[in-house]
């Protein structure tokens, strides 16, 4: 049975608590894609086992709790975190090099981008905490902002496609494209906002 079907069965039996727990485990590197877990949560809402709007909040809570625990573990343990057996498997020398390279290029915004980089998400959050490159407040702001984009996409996609798995899997495979399109639209909107604000400020000064 495929992971999505297994998760739907598990979540149907145990509801919101199961979704919350699996999402926290995903934050620790559980080899189940976080997006598939969120889609499965949306599916059981579409099948009327749970409320989809409540599922969105449960999804947000699970995602942020899992990310926050990883970040806090890095913050508390520092470089010792990289010596833990589970972390050593996740944080290979190759991944560590990629993480450091991304922090060097993009600074704190790597935390925001990590939400859309499944293979590097946990290593980035752990490194952000262990190296103290990001404060608690900034971490949760950046991660929360990114989650507000990705979580509703997956939950409501699962909800809409609950009765049509073929259509659903078609869009799940294209979910990252949809996410990046929305990010592009958001970025354009932000740039346009600051451009108009700057232009209006100049007009008032003249």
SS-based class: mainly alpha
Report the mean per-residue pLDDT as an integer: 81
Q: Strand share of the residues? A: under 5%
Number of domains: 1
What's the end-to-end separation, in Å?
A: 68 Å
Kindly state the percentage of residues in helix: over 70%
Question: Could you list the spans in which at least 5 consecutive residues all have pLDDT below 50?
Answer: none
Supply Rg.
19 Å
Apparent shape: globular
Outline the biggest β-sheet. Answer: none
Which series of helices and strands comes N to C? HHHHHHHHHH
The helix count comes to 10
Q: Report the count of strand segments.
A: 0
How would you explain this protein's 3D organization?
- The chain contains ten helices and no strands.
- The protein has 206 residues and is an all-alpha fold.
- It has one domain (3-173).
- The termini are far apart.
- The mean pLDDT is 81.
Short structural description:
The protein has helices spanning 3-27, 34-46, 52-77, 85-90, 93-106, 109-114, 121-130, 136-160, 165-173, 175-205.
How are the SSEs placed, and which strands pair?
Layout: H1 3-27, H2 34-46, H3 52-77, H4 85-90, H5 93-106, H6 109-114, H7 121-130, H8 136-160, H9 165-173, H10 175-205
Helix pairs in contact: 1-2, 1-3, 2-3, 2-8, 3-7, 3-8, 8-10
């Amino acid at each position: 049975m495929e992971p999505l079907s297994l998760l739907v069965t598990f979540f149907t039996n145990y509801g919101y608590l199961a979704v919350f727990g699996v999402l926290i485990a995903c934050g620790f590197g559980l080899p189940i894609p976080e997006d598939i877990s969120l889609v499965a949560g949306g599916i059981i809402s579409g099948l009327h086992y749970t409320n989809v709007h409540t599922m969105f909040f449960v999804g947000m809570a699970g995602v942020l709790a899992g990310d926050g625990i990883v970040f806090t573990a890095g913050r508390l343990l520092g470089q010792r975190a990289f010596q833990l057996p589970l972390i050593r498997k996740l944080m290979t020398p190759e991944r560590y090099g990629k993480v450091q390279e991304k922090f060097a290029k993009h600074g704190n915004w790597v935390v925001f981008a990590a939400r859309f980089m499944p293979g590097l998400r946990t290593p980035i959050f752990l490194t952000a905490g262990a190296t103290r490159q990001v404060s608690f407040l900034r971490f949760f702001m950046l991660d929360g902002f990114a989650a507000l984009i990705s979580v509703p996409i997956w939950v409501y996609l699962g909800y809409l496609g609950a009765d049509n798995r073929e259509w659903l899997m078609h869009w799940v495979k294209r979910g990252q494209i949809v996410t990046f399109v929305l990010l592009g639209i958001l970025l354009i909107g932000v740039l346009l906002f600051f451009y108009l604000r700057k232009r209006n400020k100049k007009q008032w000064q003249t």
